[in-house]
Amino acid sequence: MSTMNVSLPDELKSFVDARVDMGGYGSTSEYVRDLIRRDQDRERLRGLLVEGASTPLGPVADESFFEALRDRVRSVG
């Protein structure tokens, strides 16, 4: 694992310390790692949404669509 030093204004440092003190994090490093992971998750989700938005529309998900889907599931099981 690598070490990274981050400088924060007093206001942000106090905020981070309060978040750690509230529980759920054993250290400021855990809190920052969690923030980075959440940012990575948002970035992946954004990519999936953009990819989905750029694909052609599929079938309309109406009652007949779901009935056909149920029939396919029943025939496999």
Strand content: under 5%
| Oligomeric description of these chains | single chain
Number of helices: 3
In one word, what is the shape? elongated
Overall average residue pLDDT: 94
Which spans have pLDDT < 50 for at least 5 consecutive residues? Answer: none
**Structural class by helix and strand composition:** mainly alpha
Elements, N to C (H/E): HHH
Count the domains: 1
Terminal residue distance:
47 Å
The major pleated sheet works out as:
none
- The helicity comes to 55-70%
Q: How much is the radius of gyration in Å?
A: 23 Å
DSSP E strands, number: 0
Summarize the structure.
The protein has 77 residues and is an all-alpha fold.
Would you write up a description of this structure?
The protein has 77 residues and is mainly alpha-helical. It has one domain (10-76). Helix content is 68%, strand content 0%. It has helices spanning 10-21, 28-53, 63-76. It is elongated, with a radius of gyration of 23 Å. It starts with 9 loop residues before the first helix and ends with a helix.
